[in-house]
Amino acid sequence: MKPLLVINTKAYESATGVKALKLAEICESIANELNVTIMLAVQPSDVFLVASQVSIPILSQHCDANYGAFTGSVTAKSLLDNCAYGTMLNHSEHRVDEETIRKVIEECKKLKLKVLLCVASLEEARKYKDLKPDYMAFEEPSLIGGNLSITQAMPKSVEEFARLCRNAGISPLCGAGIKKGEDFLAAIELGCDGVLVASAVAKAANQREAILELCSKVVEKR
Questions:
Q1: What is the pLDDT of residue 71?
Q2: Which of 46, 157, 177, 184 has a CA 20 to 30 Å removed from the CA of 193?
Q3: Residue 127 clears pLDDT 80, i.e. is over it
């Protein structure tokens, strides 16, 4: 499997709307150049704008479980019709309850949409592994946006998480504080398929250089 870099644009002005598309085009170019997989998780309103113009997988940052009179909700079918590859779900900044997680995963599986489920602890990973999301990302909330990466702060936990996911047939990722090539490489060496990042790329003055730096050590190690 190619190393996997998932970039969450959050709601940063530097990676929203047309700027999200520009970032996606950069990601597409680097993915082809370095033979890595790069996914972009964008705001639901940006999914079609971006996914219809690039070949890399585009995730929605969220998906809701129900159809009906739920104004403002984002349904799985709408994401499918707008060219999404899948959805991110339960990010620490947009937590949802267990029933919603179960329903969204079930609906996405029916539609063949991928689900990247975020968890904040090993306990959550154990709780949700039997739902079989396609990807699971372990992010320690206190480290998100900080300068200490989860691979430095919690290597044994990341290793245990990766083992748990693999035993369940889930692709493991880790995130929180991932900013450098060494962080990405450490994640791979601890058993993950890749990493989930946000501000390190989305808020970078030079987004292309930030992505190249993140991928540098993994590419060198091949």
A1: 87
A2: 46
A3: yes
Which among 184, 182, 202, 181 is positioned nearest to 193, based on CA atoms? 184
**CB-based contacts of 48-51 (< 8 A; 24+ apart in sequence):** 48/82, 48/83, 49/17, 49/18, 49/20, 49/21, 50/20, 50/21, 50/24, 51/82, 51/83, 51/84, 51/85
The residues assigned a catalytic role are 91, 139
Reduce the DSSP state of residue 8 to 3 states and report it. strand
- Specify the pTM: 0.96
Number of domains comprising the chain: 1
d(CA 89, CA 63): 7
167: exposed, middle or buried (Cβ count in 10 Å: 0-12, 13-18, 19+): exposed
Could you give the CA distance from residue 191 to residue 207 in angstroms, rounded to a whole number?
A: 27
CA neighbours within 13 Å on the CB side: how many for 82?
A: 21
Could you list the residue range(s) of the whole structural domain that residue 99 is in? 4-221
Q: What is the CATH number of the domain that holds 78?
A: 3.20.20.70
Question: What is the DSSP code (8-state) at residue 19?
Answer: H
